[in-house]
Specification:
The chain is mainly alpha-helical and about 70 residues long. The chain is built from two helices and two strands.
């Protein structure tokens, strides 16, 4: 039997992610809920510059942004 994933409000998820990214000094200007597929609850991360991708990578590494 497949495991049911918990329902997560995509709007709350976007705001939580935006807050966490802001705390890490990262801005994703295109971050939003994907309105074209509401049943899938997708989040649109958008395109970013290479320097932003590098900072995001650093922040996701163990010990990054301490």
């Amino acid at each position: 039997m497949p495991v049911k994933k918990p329902d997560v409000d995509p709007y709350a998820a976007v705001e939580d992610l935006r807050a966490a990214l802001t705390k890490a000094g990262i801005v994703l200007p295109s971050l939003r809920v994907d309105l074209a597929s509401p049943a899938l609850r997708l989040i649109e991360l958008g395109r970013v510059r290479a320097d932003v991708a590098a900072r995001l990578t650093q922040a996701l590494q163990p010990g990054g942004r301490e």
